[in-house]
């Protein structure tokens, strides 16, 4: 019989890894775990009931919102508000940060930034999607309403981050800065079981993930790197394999396990790339560094970027160390 351990048990065992009060982590992750189970249940039956499809509204970036985006947003927000640890949430689906006004929440120490359902355009075609979350300690005084400064902290201040992947199996992956751990959901038991302790990404990979349809609009250095990936150099295991799901969490997760690079550079349409620094890039960068990999905007470490606005976008290159270094050197050489 394998040594089965649940996410709840693992968190209790690792409580001391959390830099602050020990019960906080288990409560915070407990709320994420609960909302993830509820969202997972709805996603699983998305094809069965009339729940997919656009609502007709647009979010702050002018993108069409899907019903499940809003559903996930509501469930995660409600789960956070129900705990005493969270004073506010900023979400990709909300124009402004949401602050909780109950006294218990105002006394809370943490803010959460999240993309409640990333890659949601994939739901209608039964492709994996994910939830991404990022946790910071507030900088405003306890007992007050949280401010912009609480949400606009650089990624290197994160105390925890993670994602849920609703895939062929559902997994929750998180870090508190002491390695990155993965838990697979057993729907019959309703629990997340430890399945991937201390994941490490290979230093070299052979998978590159990018929306190559935009090739013509990519910066010169990125074009050169794509050609490098495609060159026939068997001694260097090239050409590499191209894999792109169009769902960041899924592409990231595969590359983490197998070795590879995910790229969303600037394009003519998205001069700063498409992905959001606070909801997508920072949490994924924290996780990737904990797995021994690298996350960059093409020149600088993602986690050191000082954010200026909530929905800020940034070019994103994340994955195996040698692959990210290689694309950075092409970008430097061909600005
Ligand atoms: P979303 O948060 O609106 O779902 O957008 C983010 C998603 C990522 O999951 C994915 O990697 C990327 O957008 C795909 O974009 P594109 O279709 O331009 O390749
Ligand atoms: Mg997203």
TrEMBL record:
It comes from Photobacterium frigidiphilum. One of its GO terms (biological process) is fructose 6-phosphate metabolic process. Residues 201-331 form the Fructose-1-6-bisphosphatase class 1 C-terminal domain. InterPro entries: FBPase_C_dom, FBPase_class-1, FBPase_N, FBPtase, Fructose_bisphosphatase_AS. Keywords: Carbohydrate metabolism, Cytoplasm, Hydrolase, Magnesium, Metal-binding. Binds 2 magnesium ions per subunit. GO terms for molecular function: fructose 1,6-bisphosphate 1-phosphatase activity; magnesium ion binding. Belongs to the FBPase class 1 family. Mg(2+) 2 binds at residues 115, 118, 280. Mg(2+) 1 binds at residues 92, 115, 117. Its EC number is 3.1.3.11. This is Fructose-1,6-bisphosphatase class 1. SUPFAM superfamilies: Carbohydrate phosphatase (SSF56655). Pathway: Carbohydrate biosynthesis; Calvin cycle. Residues 5-197 form the Fructose-1-6-bisphosphatase class I N-terminal domain. Gene3D superfamilies: 3.40.190.80, Fructose-1,6-Bisphosphatase, subunit A, domain 1. One of its GO terms (cellular component) is cytosol. Substrate binds at residues 118-121, 211, 244, 274. Homotetramer. It catalyses: beta-D-fructose 1,6-bisphosphate + H2O = beta-D-fructose 6-phosphate + phosphate. The gene is fbp. Signal peptide: none annotated. Its cofactor is Mg(2+). It is found in: Cytoplasm. Pfam families: FBPase, FBPase_C.
